[in-house]
User: What shape does this take?
Amino acid sequence: MTEALAALGGSVVGGLFTLLGTVLVGRIGLRTEQLRRTAEERTAFTQLVRSQSAEVHRLMIAVQFQIDGVCWLARHAPHRVNPSLLERYETQMQALLPQMAGAMSVLAALDLESHDRLLPWTDELDRLDGDVARLLYGQLDDAVIDQLAALHEQTTDFYRRLPQALGSTLALLAPPADADVD
Assistant: This one.
């Protein structure tokens, strides 16, 4: 009988260790799955913010292109600065500026820090547009055309600086390689 009790005791102890091992393996597997899912969610969110930042940059380039186009014409083909150019410019800007503002609003909803990094750039574009629009809405004479031509350097400088801003904005969104996922 003592052998039977020893065997029974051994079976009970073995069964308890098996049960404990199964519970521990299950908890480890669950924790690993939670960590994987959290990492995937962070990656997806980072990609969403990066994509929205890129959309804002795309629209900034489109706005800059319209502003620079007017200034370039004033410098290199002043005879083409006319009321028709004003109409085209106004139509394009009335389409692009609300798109850019909307893209910035979406970015702010996703990541306010990224929005705040890009806000000075959109403010600069708004100032450049205001400068060009004020000149275009006045009398289109040689003095105005000269002032528009002088803005060409500012718009070109903006274009040259913007890609670096995009790169630095997107680099800040990259999660660190050793990020601890909780």
Summary: Helices lie at 2-76, 83-110, 112-136, 142-173. Residues 5 and 31 are 39 Å apart (CA to CA). The first helix runs from residue 2 to 76. Residues 176-182 have pLDDT under 50 and may be disordered.
